[in-house]
Specification:
- The chain is mostly beta strands.
- It has a single domain, classed as Immunoglobulins (Immunoglobulin-like, Sandwich), CATH 2.60.40.10.
- The chain contains no helices and ten strands.
- It has strands at residues 2-3, 5-6, 14-20, 30-38, 42-49, 55-57, 63-69, 75-83, 87-99, 102-114.
- The strands form two sheets. The protein has a five-stranded antiparallel beta sheet with strand order 1-3-4-8-6, with no helix packed on it. It has a five-stranded antiparallel beta sheet with strand order 2-10-9-5-7, with no helix packed on it.
Length: 116
């Protein structure tokens, strides 16, 4: 797994790693395996994936929640997408950890190179 690049200056208490299950090809379903690594406990984690040109997200893939997050644990999720164009794309992922003290948010970028 590779660490997703964080966006902006704010560094929330969570990291995101990803791996591609296979080489991305136009018109072939692609699984992106995500690993959420929280550094604090939280009541819930909400993950939002930005729809981008060149990809179609599977139904329900744009947002999902993980209840009851514990610091130091690893939470895995598989994101299903369909590449629809050839090129270099950057998929945006936003993570929100919610707890009694408020919400911690961090944005990440996942680069994907799609071939024919």
């Amino acid at each position: 797994m590779v660490e997703a690049a964080g966006q902006g200056k704010a560094q929330g208490p969570v990291d995101l790693k990803f791996e591609l299950a296979q080489r991305p090809k136009v018109g072939q379903a692609l699984e992106i395996n995500l690993a959420l690594l929280p550094q604090i406990d939280a009541k819930t984690a909400t993950i939002q994936v930005a729809a981008i040109d060149g990809f179609t997200l599977a139904d329900g893939a744009g947002q999902f929640e993980i209840p009851s997050i514990a610091a130091g644990e690893v939470y895995r999720h598989t994101l299903n997408v369909l590449p629809t164009a050839e090129g270099v794309f950057v998929m945006g992922v936003t993570l929100q950890l919610k707890n009694d003290d408020g919400t911690e948010t961090r944005a990440f970028s996942i680069p994907v190179i799609v071939d024919r």
